[in-house]
Write a structure and sequence with these properties.
The complex is a heterodimer of chains A (402) and B (164). With 402 residues, chain A is of the alpha/beta class. Chain A has helices at residues 10-14, 21-28, 47-58, 71-85, 100-112, 129-135, 155-160, 184-196, 253-266, 272-284, 286-309, 334-345, 371-401, and strands at 34-35, 95-98, 118-123, 139-144, 166-171, 200-204, 229-234, 247-250, 322-323, 347-348, 350-351, 363-366. In chain B, 34% of the residues lie in helices and 21% in strands. Chain B is built from 5 helices and 6 strands, in the order H-H-H-E-H-E-E-H-E-E-E. Chain B is extended. The chains are: A alpha/beta (402), B alpha+beta (164).
């Protein structure tokens, strides 16, 4: 037998190893660490939702559901999309319940991409879009957004990256890791380019409910855009239900039935007990979402203010639960910064380049952490930055003396 | 201060305890002076009654015996139950007193250093108060939740330390 590696599909080598694995091990082996590196809510799923699941189990809900998901759940999803985004979807033909928004991204890519099709991906962004595009046989094309534009995609940037093979645009706003949101006006600009160039949008709106200073707008709700948008959302972030793995897709019937083809043979259906919990979340969980959003918003202001006070440039994030300050002033790379911060002050944050080349020079701080932990972590970061700048000054002086 | 802001401020104080006014101001998008003066005002109006710390005394190694006492009372002309309640709540052993509907009138939470001390307090001090008809003691065996906080380890952070 040859080396096992030689049997692997070539596409596997296109996917780089996890950017956080090594750092994860470093954090695991250190004691007394406060982690602001967690990309999920610090809240536990509200009790009534958990109870709905245990009750479902007690009643014997342990079987498969229809491939598309429980009909009642699809109705709730349709009702939610109507109410929150004023979008009308048919629960029978246009909605698919998936195993997390992650599966939804994979399904969307696989159902649309022909070999060589280009997938436009604004970065920094969540880590799965590029690998999913590769796995589907597509060619991801990174678009670097920057702090200058508040990490928003602009029509100019988008147009610059268009080729004759461009087919899909991925939008993930509110954005992980930057906290950027796209408001209606900005989306209208993008929609214009999308329509002119006959693109399909995969819009990952998993953080939609966590939008501050206004409400979330979906690109699907703009004129002529619903039919060219695959809207992805889920319950993970809004309802603190990450481990339940419930996401969903809303899209035109032809898209949904294509995705159901893949879903039925690879996943069959989302777990029924999680779907039952999701049903309860939609029916009785609105106050929970509001309450959690309120707390995130308070912490957001706290973290941004403190980061700015310690001299880090930090644009104001308006969604999700991340702040993405620049650490360029310190003279360190993102990776050096995160490793040194962990070693010296026992605070874990995620290095910006994990989310794409354009993330270099930034770090992602999650404020899905208690106020007590946040204030302690920020104090430690301030010590770290202050000591760094002293060190830099010393070096500067020495250089002068020479 | 706006009514909604005021309520937000109270909620933050209740949830986070004594965090610096500077941080509260940032969290609520207020000026720090505004926060300070509003807290002072709320204290003066006795809306903020006290800044306390929730302690698990059992864990701290302190032996405390607590009991909930149902007290039946003959109500008094003009003052109803208030007079008896006042006589009860002045005892330092008494931690809380509520007027309740149902089979009895006052619900009294008491604390003592031992079972005997608590039982004697009921027999000698509480039951002998004028117009107290009867008492029934329920000793507290285990505390699960207090002041909105679950006291066991059930909901610790189980998340992975780093997640993209």
């Amino acid at each position: 037998m040859k080396n096992c590696e030689e049997y692997l599909a070539p596409v596997i080598n296109k996917i780089p190893p996890s950017g956080i694995r090594k750092f994860f091990d470093l954090v695991m082996n250190a004691e007394g660490v406060i982690s602001l590196g967690v990309g999920e809510p610090d809240f536990v799923t509200p009790w009534h939702i958990r109870e709905a699941c245990t009750e479902a189990l007690a009643q014997g809900y342990t079987m498969y559901t229809s491939n598309q998901g429980l009909p009642e759940l699809r109705q709730e999803i349709a009702a939610y999309l109507k109410k929150s985004l004023d979008l009308k979807y048919c629960p029978e033909k246009e909605i698919l319940v998936t195993v997390g928004a992650s599966e939804a991204v994979d399904l969307a890519m696989r159902s649309l991409i022909a070999p060589g099709d280009e997938v436009l991906i604004p970065e920094p962004c969540y880590v799965s879009y590029k690998p999913c595009a590769y796995l589907a046989g597509g060619e991801p094309v990174s678009i670097q957004t920057s702090a200058v534009n508040k990490f928003k995609l602009t029509s100019g940037l988008l147009e610059k990256h268009l080729t004759s093979r461009s087919k899909i645009l991925v939008l993930s706003y509110p954005n992980n890791p930057t906290g950027a949101v796209m408001r209606r006006k900005e989306l209208e600009e993008i929609a214009r380019v999308v329509i002119e160039n006959d693109l399909i949008v995969i819009s990952d709106e998993i953080y939609g409910e966590l939008t501050y200073n206004g409400s979330h707008v979906s690109i699907a709700s703009l004129p002529q855009m619903q039919s060219r948008t695959i809207l992805i959302n889920g319950l993970s972030k809004a309802y603190a239900m990450t481990g339940w793995r419930i996401g969903y897709i809303a899209a035109a019937p032809a898209f949904v039935s294509a995705m159901v083809k893949i879903h039925q043979y690879t996943m069959l259906c989302a777990p029924v007990m999680s779907q039952m919990a999701a049903l309860e979340a939609f029916r009785n969980g609105k106050d929970d979402v509001k309450q959690m959003r309120g707390q995130y918003d308070q912490r957001r202001r706290l973290v941004v203010t403190r980061l700015r006070e310690m001299g880090l440039d930090c644009f104001e994030p308006e969604g999700a639960f991340y702040v993405f300050p620049s650490i360029k002033k310190t003279g360190l790379s993102s990776q050096e910064f995160t490793e040194e911060l962990l070693k010296k002050e026992k605070v874990a944050v995620v290095s910006g380049e994990v989310f794409g080349r354009g993330g270099e020079g930034h770090i992602r701080c999650s404020y899905a952490a208690s106020v007590t932990n946040l204030t302690e972590a920020l104090q430690r970061m301030e010590n770290f930055v202050r000591n760094l700048s002293r060190g830099l000054n010393c070096r500067g002086l020495k250089e002068k003396a020479r | 201060m706006q009514e909604t802001k005021r309520k937000e401020l109270l909620k933050v104080l209740e949830r986070e305890g004594n965090i610096p006014a500077k941080d509260i101001a940032v969290m609520l998008n207020l000026e720090v002076e505004e926060v300070r003066s509003e807290i002072a005002k709320l204290e003066k109006e006795k809306i903020i009654i006290k800044h306390t710390t929730l302690i698990d005394w059992e864990k701290a190694g302190e032996e405390i015996v607590s009991a909930l006492i149902d007290v039946k009372v003959t109500p008094q002309r003009d003052v109803g139950f208030d007079e008896v309640a006042e006589k009860i709540y002045h005892f330092p052993e008494v931690k809380a007193v509520f007027l309740v509907s149902g089979g009895y009138d006052l619900s009294v939470l008491i604390e003592g250093k031992s079972l005997k001390e608590a039982a004697l307090f009921v027999a000698e001090k509480l039951a002998t108060i004028e117009n107290v008809q009867s008492t029934m003691s329920h000793f507290i065996l285990k505390r699960y939740k207090e002041a909105g906080v679950i006291l066991n380890k059930f909901e610790e952070d189980h998340r992975q330390v780093i997640i993209p």
